[in-house]
Design goal:
alpha+beta; MetI-like fold; 2 domains; 3-stranded antiparallel β-sheet; 15 helices; 12% strand; globular
Length: 386
């Protein structure tokens, strides 16, 4: 303060010259003008593990569109001469000479002491694999007939990369077809769960009062039941004479109806804090309806967090379907899923003699891990300003 009691200020009285300020570099300008979604994408790209897992998930979900083409055999093709045949190895060289991808022919022997089928290889019978070829016929998505495959067994030969089951069906082909059901059930289930969670959680968080109390009590009741026994009880209620499609949607709805509670609480907690903000009050004063305020102004503010939460919820649904089908209470043949395939490996004696029947558990583990790591990356990228 000066002697007259006035507070001195340091604002320049000179005319403003825009060229006098420090100019931003193109990189800085690109960063400061980027949208939140673009910042999220840039941050996600720096999470190498999440990107790799995202690519794995994209390839797996892309493969379900062409399961009939990728699988070497038709889903129901039986090779009765090769029941419980072990996996065949793919070779490139024979007697030091490069041949290309091929398998050796097999003979059939029955071990009467162990009552076990043996399939010794004939090292002099080289059977080259065929690629982009015509093989077993199929109904592509049930729409039209086709017989084009990415890889086919040799002419008058076999190609069982992961072995065969008790009916002589190729395990690799059945895993490929089963991915369509197991992966789809997670996406459809999370869509239903996402809808319920946003609607009920949004109403509870925006209105509060008795609406909030009712939704919260319902959530507490649902979460108080043990998850697996409740799944089993609801699955057992489904009529046994339902078609496979109805069973599929019934299991999907059961998993979705029990999974929306966590998402609803996340939406409620966010809306409780955002509904008091000035922009929400301004929208109300301008006459905006509650549905517009919630959908247009509140939810987009934390949609990135919702997407990350949904990504982490999909593995739980895949595991739920796998567990129910493994116990015989979920999907049932002729529907093929990874859980249905694992149901055939319940007998410990079968697993001890034919361990390749446990191969369907490998894609389950890989997909669950990929979803978890990808969800972690999305959750970190959801707040790009940290």
């Amino acid at each position: 303060m000066n002697r007259q009691g006035r507070i001195e200020h340091y604002v320049s009285s000179e005319p403003f010259d825009p060229l006098s300020i420090e100019q931003l570099t193109p990189e800085q300008e690109k960063y400061y003008l980027a949208s939140q979604w673009k910042l999220m994408w840039w941050k996600l790209k720096r999470h190498r593990l999440a990107v790799i897992c995202g690519i794995i998930l994209a390839l797996n979900y892309g493969s379900v569109l062409f399961s009939e083409i990728i699988a070497p055999y038709n889903l129901h093709t039986r090779n009765i001469d090769y029941i419980y045949s072990p996996p065949q190895s793919v070779h490139l060289f024979h007697n030091g000479k490069f041949i290309g991808p091929f398998v050796y022919g097999r003979d059939y022997e029955l071990d009467m002491d162990l009552l076990k089928r043996n399939y010794p290889e004939r090292k002099d019978d080289v059977q080259p694999l065929r690629f982009f070829c015509s093989g077993d016929s199929y109904q592509f998505w049930g729409l039209f007939e086709g017989n084009f495959h990415l890889v086919c067994p040799p002419d008058n030969g076999t190609f069982f990369l992961l072995g065969t089951d008790r009916l002589g069906r190729d395990v690799l082909s059945r895993i490929t077809y089963g991915a369509r059901i197991s992966l789809t059930i997670g996406i459809i289930g999370i869509a239903i769960s996402f809808t319920f969670g946003i609607i009920l959680g949004g109403l509870a968080g925006y209105y509060g009062g008795w609406v909030d109390a009712t939704v919260q009590r319902a959530i507490e009741v649902i979460r108080s039941f043990p998850e697996l026994p409740l799944w089993m009880a609801l699955s057992a209620v489904l009529p046994v004479n339902w078609s496979p499609i109805l069973i599929f949607f019934g299991i999907t709805v059961i998993l979705a109806m029990l999974d929306w509670t966590g998402l609803a609480r996340a939406v409620r907690s966010k809306l409780l804090s955002l509904r008091e903000e000035d922009f929400c009050t301004a929208a109300e004063l301008m006459g905006a309806r509650p549905s517009r305020i919630i959908g247009r102004h509140l939810l987009p503010g934390f949609m990135s967090h919702l997407i990350a939460s949904a990504t982490l919820s999909i593995p739980a649904m895949i595991l739920g379907e796998t567990a129910l089908s493994f116990l015989g209470l979920g999907l049932r043949p002729p529907v093929t899923s990874w859980g249905v395939l694992l149901n055939e490996a319940q007998n410990i004696n079968v697993v001890a003699l034919y361990p390749w029947l446990m191969f369907p558990v490998v894609p389950v583990i890989l997909i669950i891990l990929a979803f978890n790591f990808f969800g972690d990356g999305l959750r970190d990228a959801a707040d790009p300003y940290k």
